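User: I've been trying to design a sequence by hand for this structure and keep getting stuck. Would you show me what you'd pick, starting by listing the structure so we're on the same page?

Assistant: Good idea, let's start from the same input. This is the structure you sent:
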């Protein structure tokens, strides 16, 4: 089966495709690439796909002026989708097994799309939610991106002027996060307009918390929702309206990007793509498809994919080819004329030939996996995690199980799934034992957030969702927080804690240990601030609210190279609680 994929891929490269792309390549004008990814937005959240309760003219324009894919699939959740679009390989090959606490990290032997574009002479920038590793060498600046502005976690708790990072350094964002990310991306495009660029714009909405600025909420809050969920579960209308309001904000920002490209005279030499990372994050209209985020059924993994390249991809092209996130890397590199010899065996294929002949269907198989649920798809069929067979060409809503009436097809699909289990899923170890890396020679700021830490004693996590959480109830000298780390390069580091602390609790002695090296300091400054973001929430959140965590320097420590344990505890506590703890940062000193 693996050999068949490689033969198909090779055949696709020889089949030709975009008509006049060769003329552009001959002139040395490689196209710019802008890849836009929405977070937790469903296939049905766009007006192009039939949603009568939302208006997305700019996203729709990418589809109407380019190609729209009707059989495009991503993963059931965020980090695996990102791994697949970055590498062209199934996420399990890259070690991605979770969405937090290190399980989201992409193995270091993986080569990303940004690596390949950078090697081909492109400038590369990422603006938004990374979700593939925080510490070097997992950080985006270590994975081929010259520029990074955003956050590395799986979700963020405050969307208004939040704590973000710029090339590793912690900064404060400006205004609503999606507007800010877009402004930074546009600025990068303007700075690099004279050279080919690859811009990755992974937005973090409409992922919860459902923080919606008044401008966008007021447009939707009284709107009639004309289509509802078709599931038996109840729909939260405020959540639906918040998701649609955030979608319309994304659409406005997509329009800003397109206007900027046009204003710079780059429109005809820029490829713009739009897709989502998984199914919708609530029960809302999704064309009657079964499942939502987290599901391997149609509603959980079917995504829009729109690709626009004026003069190269014919406007209004509809592509029915079975395809997925694993195809984006080979397709974009092929369209750019810079298809390399891949250093890892990839699972995706180039879809370039399809643009010139949308009726040219390449037979293939795609797999989905999450939380012990697995599914396999061919061009017209789905075998879901329950072993039920559906003809998705005729029954997208999965109403008619054919597993008993078409036992031959069912057996064929099960054999394919067995291959995936044996050749791909078997690569994932039962437990992730990779340490968190700090003190990489190319990294000035090494971060150990609460998300990646293990609490001991009475310390509690602020929320059951580790991403963007913090630790509280730190009240006893026996309480501690630890991380298993690998110090990449020895050196002297300033240790900074991000925290809040009431005035009456100031004065605890903080001890940080890294292996046999220790640092002790007294917390001498209060940082008593309220929770942020509640005023923008349109529905109650499950995630933590965020406090205004501030930095406090504990002094300097010497780190020795190798695997060891980082521990922080407070041997002396004069007040009721030490602090609310968000993150440790090790800043390399000269």
């Amino acid at each position: 089966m693996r050999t068949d994929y490689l033969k198909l891929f090779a055949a696709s490269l020889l089949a030709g495709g975009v008509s006049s792309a060769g003329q552009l390549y001959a002139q040395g004008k490689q196209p710019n690439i802008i890849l836009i990814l929405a977070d937790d937005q469903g296939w049905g959240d766009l007006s192009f796909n039939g949603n009568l309760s939302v208006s997305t003219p700019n996203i729709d324009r990418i589809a109407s002026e380019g190609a729209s894919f009707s059989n495009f699939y991503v993963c059931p959740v965020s980090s695996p989708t990102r791994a697949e679009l970055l590498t062209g390989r199934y996420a399990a090959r890259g070690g991605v097994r979770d969405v937090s606490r290190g399980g989201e990290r992409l193995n270091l032997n993986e080569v990303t799309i940004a690596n390949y574009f950078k090697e081909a002479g492109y400038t590369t920038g990422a603006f938004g939610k990374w979700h593939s590793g925080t510490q070097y060498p997992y950080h985006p600046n270590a994975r081929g991106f010259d520029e990074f502005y955003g956050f590395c976690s799986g979700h963020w708790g405050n969307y208004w002027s939040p704590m973000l990072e710029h090339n590793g350094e912690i900064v404060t964002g400006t205004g609503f996060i999606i507007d800010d990310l877009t402004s930074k991306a546009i600025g990068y495009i303007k700075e690099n307009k004279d050279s080919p660029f690859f811009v990755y714009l992974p937005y973090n909405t409409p992922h919860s918390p459902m923080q919606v600025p008044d401008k966008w909420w007021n447009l939707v809050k009284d709107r009639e929702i004309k289509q509802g969920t078709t599931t038996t579960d109840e729909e939260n209308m405020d959540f639906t309206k918040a998701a649609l309001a955030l979608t319309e904000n994304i659409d406005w920002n997509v329009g800003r990007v397109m206007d900027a490209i046009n204003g710079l005279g780059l429109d005809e030499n820029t490829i713009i793509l739009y897709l989502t990372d998984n199914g919708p994050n609530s029960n809302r209209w999704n064309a009657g498809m079964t499942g939502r985020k987290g599901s391997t059924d149609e509603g959980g993994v079917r995504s829009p994919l729109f690709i626009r390249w004026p003069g190269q991809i014919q406007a209004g092209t509809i592509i029915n080819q079975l395809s997925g996130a694993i195809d984006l890397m080979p397709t974009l590199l092929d369209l750019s004329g810079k298809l390399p010899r891949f250093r890892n065996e990839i699972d995706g294929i180039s879809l370039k030939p399809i643009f010139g002949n949308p009726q040219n269907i390449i037979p293939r198989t795609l797999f989905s996996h999450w939380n012990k649920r697995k599914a396999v798809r061919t061009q017209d069929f789905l075998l879901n995690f329950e072993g039920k067979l559906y003809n998705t060409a005729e029954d997208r809503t999965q109403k008619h199980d054919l597993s008993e009436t078409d036992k031959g097809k069912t057996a064929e699909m099960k054999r394919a799934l067995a291959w995936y289990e044996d050749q791909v899923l078997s690569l994932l170890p039962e437990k992730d034992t990779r340490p968190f890396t700090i003190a990489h020679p190319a990294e000035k700021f090494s971060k150990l957030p609460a998300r990646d830490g293990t609490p001991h004693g009475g310390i509690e996590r602020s929320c059951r969702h580790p991403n963007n959480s913090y630790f509280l109830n730190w009240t006893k000298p026996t309480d501690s927080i630890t991380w298993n780390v690998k110090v990449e390069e020895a050196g002297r580091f300033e240790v900074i804690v991000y925290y809040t602390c009431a005035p009456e609790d100031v004065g605890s002695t903080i001890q940080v240990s890294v292996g046999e090296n220790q640092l002790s300091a007294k917390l001498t400054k209060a940082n008593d601030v309220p929770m942020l973001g509640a005023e923008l929430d349109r529905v109650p959140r499950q995630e933590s609210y965020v406090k205004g965590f501030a930095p406090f320097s504990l002094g300097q420590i010497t780190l020795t190279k190798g695997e060891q344990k980082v521990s922080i505890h407070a041997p002396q506590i004069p007040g009721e609680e030490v602090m609310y703890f968000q993150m440790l940062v090790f800043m390399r000193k000269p």
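That's my pick for every position. To get oriented when you compare it with your attempt: The first helix runs from residue 2 to 14. The chain has twelve helices and 30 strands.
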